[in-house]
Amino acid sequence: MHRAHVSKIGMTALVPPELIFACAGEPFDVNNIIPASKNYPKNKLCAWTAIWREMLVKREIKIDSLIVVAGGDCHNALVDGQKAAMSGIPTHFFFYPFDGDVQYLESQLHKLSSFLGNIEYPEKFRDVKALKKLGRKIDNKRLNGKISSSEAFRILVSFSDLMGDLDRFRNALDIKEGNIALNNRVALIGVPPIYHDFHEAAQSLDLQIVFDELPYEFVRHSGDDINEVALDYCNYTFARSLDFRIEFLQKELEKRKVEGVIHYTQFACHHVLEDEILRAKLDYPMLTIQGDLPGKTPQQIKLRLEAFREVLERS
Ligand code: SF4
């Protein structure tokens, strides 16, 4: 049986896209359009949530319903998500367990499945899992200098919604390989930069980003059914305690042999407060930068990246 209409499901942060596909929905991560956006919202704290909130309220983003991650990785989304809901968009509020409780997450996934009209295509779980395996291969190729960090980032960050179309996405994974000198290997931690050309800017200054913290979470978790998805996504580091996230980061940074860390922070984001803890616990030279509105990477940040590269080259 085929549905005449596939529902477009907006999501404000990471929600297992495999479940949305399995429920015959088309996931759409509302954050993916922000870096290229020219909208400057009037009433804002974090520009990410303020821009999608304004676009949703004005119906400039066309979706059938919305999933707001209200407990987990972003606190601003809770209020801006409610504003979008008050404008009349059918909305579901999703909560990750802070303590990693699998049963709690499983119950959340069942509630989400009911909101979405229940599972219709269980095979989609496996299809997404296979694509995520390819995503991890792409990440590995970037780590070995076969793919540029900007190409790898573009793909990895798209794994939050797989472009809402598994066939189209599979084709997009076909990337030409090259040979990139990995001179100054850095990790990019924190939320992704709001600047659409950040990876190109870093690369042009000879800083090779070999780890993107949040996009790696998008390809790291999967499962063949709700129970397996709960077991895996309960380790989504951004929704857990800082200790849990830092322990994961320490292992990952060591494995990737990074020489330095760039911590991107977003103006008015609560994650800014984590900077001093990350600095104390991660034993690497660290550059903290902060962005606000979307656009190109500002000259001032490029200068700071350049100075950071010099520090790495001297050490
Ligand atoms: S930058 Fe911070 S406040 Fe803004 S959407 Fe991301 S997690 Fe939320």
Q: How would you describe what is shown here?
A:
The structure is a single chain. This protein has 13 helices and 8 strands. The protein has a single domain, classed as Rossmann fold (3-Layer(aba) Sandwich). By secondary structure, the chain is of the alpha/beta class. Bound molecules: iron/sulfur cluster. Iron/sulfur cluster (SF4) binds next to helix 2 and helix 3.
CATH architecture: 3-Layer(aba) Sandwich
Q: What count of domains describes the coordinates?
A: 1
Query: Could you say which structural class the secondary elements and strand pairing correspond to?
Result: alpha/beta
Regions with pLDDT < 50 over 5+ consecutive residues? none
Q: CATH topology, what is it called?
A: Rossmann fold
User: End-to-end span in angstroms?
Assistant: 62 Å
Main β-sheet: number of strands, strand sense, barrel status?
A: 4 strands, parallel
Estimate the strand proportion: 5-15%
Strand order of the largest sheet: 2-1-3-4
Helix content: 40-55%
Provide the succession of SSEs. EHEHEHEHHHHEHEHHHEHEH
- What does the overall shape look like? globular
Query: How many helical elements?
Result: 13
Blueprint of the fold:
Layout: E1 7-11, H1 17-22, E2 25-29, H2 47-57, E3 65-71, H3 76-86, E4 91-95, H4 102-115, H5 123-143, H6 149-158, H7 166-172, E5 185-190, H8 198-204, E6 208-212, H9 213-220, H10 226-233, H11 242-255, E7 260-266, H12 275-281, E8 286-291, H13 299-314
Parallel strand pairs: 1-2, 1-3, 3-4, 5-6, 5-7, 7-8
Helix pairs in contact: 2-3, 4-10, 5-6, 5-9, 6-9
The protein binds iron/sulfur cluster.
